[in-house]
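User: I'm writing a tutorial on reading structure tokens. Could you give me a worked example: one chain, its sequence, then its tokens, then a sentence or two explaining what the tokens reveal?
Assistant: Sure. Here is the example chain.
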Amino acid sequence: MAKAAKTTRKREKKAPAPGRPTRAESEDAVRTLIRWAGDDPDREGLRATPSRVVRAFEEWFAGYRQDPHEFLNRTFSEVGGYDEMVVLRNIRFESHCEHHIAPIIGRVHIGYLPTNRVVGISKLARLIEVYAKRLQIQERLTAEIAHALNDVLRPQGVGVIVEASHECMTTRGVHKTDVTMVTSEMLGVFRTNSETRNEFLAAIGPARATRNGH
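And here are its predicted structure tokens:
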């Protein structure tokens, strides 16, 4: 039987900060950056680039217009007595770092130990997408996913591991390729019980052999 989940945290605002520029202002900003880079935004190959970039931003940062709790709001209590760990591994995501707006590409492994309710697995993937489609740092992305799931489902525990390649490091600056950053957030029994934590790590083990999130 499905039912709406209750949350104790105040709902997050869907809209970005006030004073959002118009589409025309955003396209003018792209033209300015093209000129700053040394090219002519009015030449044939670049005339449509400002509008394309703004449309890309709408897709890349759609998470600011979504409430992650809404995707978790429909839960199921009829699980036939199932009370073991639920693990979804190897969920690919694309995000952008807030320091250089460079891509972060990787995979998320997520698990929870239900109390009496579960959520559809597609909703877990959507939860990740909402937070990934914002300007991010990987540490915050990891924590936000874990705490949102914990706040809505109130399970016995939650575990989230994120592995990703950061193009702000691979395509600029130190130019170090084949580097993967790994972050984790363990809540409830995933933090306090080593057996539960080790079971989660063992369950995602084969998936973690994938290199650089691809």
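What the tokens reveal: Residues 68-210 form a domain with the GTP Cyclohydrolase I, domain 2 fold (CATH 3.30.1130.10). The mean pLDDT is 88.
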